[in-house]
Structures are given as structure tokens and as C-alpha cells.
């Protein structure tokens, strides 16, 4: 039987939350994977850790004992009110020792601390692992889910975050140019296959080339990359495989992470070796026009849905239809217009149907595209900041098909 105190799911905190005087906020897990926890600790720790705000307003960080000095130093760098740093052994159960399993021990120590502080209710975000919920429930503390926690506060980016994203996008563009230029300047055999440096130019070879380029710049490609030509580019998220060909659109989508700041770049360009077909030229012109229309909507208070609708209107006016969820023979609209970006590649909110009002300082990718089995795919993507004075584009690369 699940303990009745295990979890209360409720987006409206006002109706069911206990008194705020007994309520704490908790972020916990592995900070090298959990962006909400990393943003508070400032360290990409690979061992279980936690960040708590107690009812008194006091902040407590719980980390492995050998990380305590580093966590304290980072806390003082990040805040004028850094709070306290502890290890799990500082909060042992009265009737026994902490578990030898590190994550269980952290969860147990949190439960002990909460009881000591008189906490009866804990608010957690969408990333809170069940092990922490369970240990709190074991001592009678209710855990409540807040859908906005760790989302709203991360949507508007600070000046330093925007600087980190701008740098990540600048480096992404450097490698993007090199990849697209290699495609455009390759030699071609009688079958239309591309060759570079005496070898067949494949999707895999170019992805590895990009990976090396990013590694030299302190970036990683943990989520891979897309280098895709027909027929694979008819599927908007196909990573691409095998030989690349002349005369067809090749989608290059790079989205690396800066290992120093943990912020991402994300840029897409479409390149054609040789002469593109009339249809590909028409597709590309429609995509670029749709992108400009979408970007013109990036103002605080306007909706993310309005951004998507602006893009759709231009693509539909150019003669293309939306067929999301199915591959089509002729070029069609297959996805929304973009997404938030930051410590994660895809962050709320989406530039799509139902997208809510945008906030000043939010950063989005804008990436309309068209895809079909007959002609392949065309997509162009930039990263932009929402400001009161209009969108600020963090990209500088050209958007054309020719990269010679």
C-alpha cells in the first residue's frame, strides 16, 4: 500500500497547501543531469545532492563530504546569502545509521533535517526522484508537486545566461560553417556521391568531424547531431546515415553543450552541393520568409502560439500544407516553430499551438522547415532573445543554400 502522505498532485497551491510556515522547497538528484538542481548548486555533481529552502528562508545544500569545500566556495560565488553546506552524515536517523547507498543516504538525511525543522509539507519540481518522496513520506511529510517550480524561474534568462548562450551559439556557428563548407566544396563521382580528402563523405563522417571540432573548443555533442540528405531528411529528426549526394538539400543541425557553462548552442542550416532544384529553391525561400515572420512576433506578452501561427501562415501561403505526424511525398509542415533553450536543449515553452505568453529575456530557437520524400527537407534555425525592443538574434551565419 502506498502511504497516503506520499504525494499530493495539485497545480493550485492555494487550495490544498498547508501553512507556508511549515513548508519547505526541495530540489534533489544528480546535478550533472538535473538542470534545476545544477542551477542552484552551480556544480555538475555526479553524486546525489540536494538544495533545500526551509520555512525560515534558510538555504541548505547537502552534498557528499568530499564536495563540501567546493560547494561552499561556489555558494559564496553565486549568492550574498549562501546558506549552509552539509553532508548526509550531519543528519543521521535517531534509531540507526544512514544507508550505505549514497542516494538513499541523502534522501534519509533530508527527511531527518525536515523533521528537525518542523516541516510538514515539501514542495518539489518535476525532476524530484521518487526515492526522496518515499523517504519523506516514511516520516509523515507530505510532498506536493508544483508544475511551475523550476520552469518559470528558468524561462527568463539573466544577462550572464544570455552571454553564455551567445558564446555557445557563436562556437556552434564556427563548426557549422566548417561542416557546410566541406559539403559545398566536396568533389562528386558519376553517381552523384560526395567525396572529401579522398574518401566518401557520409553523414557519420561529418558528425564525427563536428564532434572533434567541438571537443577542441571545450564543447560536447552528448545529444548527437543531424547531417541528413534525402531520403532521410524527409523525416525532420532523422540523424542521417550513409553517403551524401550532390544537387539535393542536406540538413545540418548542431546542438552542442559548452562544458564550462553547461549552456547549449542550437543552429540549423541547409546546404546544397552544386545546383539546387527549382522546388528546393522555392522551399528554402518559403522557410526563410516564415522564419522572419515568426521572429517578428518575439515580444514580451505576445504568445508562443502567435509565433508559430505567423510561420504557418507564410508556409501555407507559399502552397505548403501541414501534415504533422505523417511523412508526405510533397513538401509539408511537420513540426512547431521552435522551443526554449538554455541548460537543456529543449526547454519550456514551445513555439507551437497553445504556447503561452512569452517573457522578457526568454531565449528561443526559431526553426521552421518543410519536408517531403520527393525533395527532401529544408530547415533554417537561429537562436533569439525576447526583448522589449524586439528580438535579438544571436546568429550571424548566412541562411543561403550555397556554402562555397
From TrEMBL:
Superkingdom: Bacteria
Catalytic activity, EC: 3.4.11.9
Statement: the UniProt record of this protein carries the keyword Protease: yes
Protein name: Xaa-Pro aminopeptidase 1
Gene Ontology terms, MF aspect: aminopeptidase activity; metal ion binding; metallopeptidase activity
Organism name: Neorhodopirellula pilleata
Keywords: Aminopeptidase, Hydrolase, Metal-binding, Metalloprotease, Protease
Membrane among keywords: no
Gene from which the chain derives: pepPI
Protein family per UniProt: Belongs to the peptidase M24B family.
Record-linked Pfam families: Peptidase_M24
Domain Peptidase M24: 165-388
Class of enzymatic activity (EC top level): hydrolase
GO biological process: one example: proteolysis
Lineage, broadest ranks: Bacteria, Pseudomonadati, Planctomycetota, Planctomycetia, Pirellulales
InterPro entries to which the protein is assigned, alphabetical: Creatinase/aminopeptidase-like, Pept_M24, Peptidase_M24B, Peptidase_M24B_aminopep-P_CS
Amino acid at each position: 500500500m502506498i502511504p497516503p502522505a506520499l504525494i499530493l498532485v495539485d497545480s493550485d497551491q492555494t487550495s490544498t497547501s498547508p501553512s507556508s510556515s511549515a513548508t519547505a522547497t526541495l530540489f534533489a538528484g544528480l546535478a550533472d543531469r538535473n538542470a534545476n538542481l545544477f542551477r542552484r548548486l552551480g556544480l555538475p555533481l555526479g553524486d546525489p545532492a540536494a538544495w533545500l529552502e526551509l520555512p525560515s528562508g534558510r538555504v541548505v545544500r547537502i552534498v557528499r563530504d568530499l564536495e563540501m569545500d567546493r560547494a561552499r566556495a561556489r555558494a559564496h560565488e553565486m549568492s550574498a546569502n549562501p546558506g549552509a553546506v552539509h553532508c548526509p552524515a550531519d543528519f543521521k536517523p535517531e534509531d540507526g545509521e544512514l544507508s550505505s547507498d549514497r542516494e538513499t543516504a541523502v534522501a534519509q538525511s533530508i527527511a531527518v533535517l525536515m523533521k528537525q525543522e518542523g516541516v510538514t509539507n515539501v514542495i518539489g519540481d518535476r525532476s524530484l526522484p521518487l526515492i526522496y518522496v518515499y523517504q519523506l513520506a516514511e516520516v509523515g511529510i507530505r510532498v506536493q508537486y508544483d508544475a511551475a517550480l523550476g520552469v518559470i524561474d528558468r524561462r527568463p534568462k539573466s544577462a550572464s545566461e544570455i552571454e553564455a548562450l551567445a558564446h555557445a551559439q557563436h562556437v556552434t556557428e564556427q563548426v557549422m560553417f566548417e561542416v557546410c563548407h566541406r559539403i559545398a566544396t566536396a568533389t562528386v563521382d558519376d553517381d552523384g556521391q560526395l567525396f572529401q580528402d579522398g574518401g566518401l563523405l557520409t553523414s557519420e563522417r561529418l558528425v564525427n568531424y563536428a564532434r572533434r571540432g567541438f571537443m577542441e573548443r571545450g564543447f560536447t555533442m552528448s545529444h548527437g547531431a543531424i547531417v541528413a540528405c534525402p531520403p532521410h531528411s524527409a523525416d525532420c529528426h532523422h540523424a542521417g546515415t550513409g553517403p551524401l549526394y550532390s544537387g539535393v538539400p542536406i540538413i545540418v543541425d548542431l546542438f552542442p553543450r559548452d562544458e564550462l557553462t553547461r549552456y547549449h548552442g542550437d543552429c540549423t542550416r541547409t546546404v546544397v552541393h552544386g545546383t539546387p532544384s527549382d522546388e528546393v529553391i522555392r522551399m528554402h525561400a518559403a522557410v526563410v520568409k516564415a522564419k522572419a515572420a515568426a521572429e517578428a512576433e518575439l515580444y514580451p506578452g505576445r504568445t508562443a502560439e502567435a509565433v508559430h501561427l505567423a510561420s504557418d501562415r507564410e508556409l501555407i501561403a507559399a502552397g505548403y500544407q501541414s501534415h504533422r505526424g505523417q511523412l508526405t511525398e510533397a513538401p509539408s509542415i511537420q513540426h512547431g516553430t521552435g522551443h526554449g533553450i538554455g541548460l537543456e536543449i529543449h526547454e519550456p515553452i514551445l513555439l507551437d499551438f497553445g504556447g503561452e505568453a512569452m517573457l522578457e529575456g526568454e531565449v528561443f530557437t526559431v526553426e521552421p522547415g518543410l519536408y517531403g520524400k520527393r525533395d527532401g527537407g529544408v530547415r533554417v534555425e537561429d537562436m533569439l532573445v525576447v526583448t522589449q525592443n524586439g528580438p535579438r538574434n544571436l546568429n550571424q551565419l548566412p541562411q543561403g543554400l550555397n556554402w562555397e
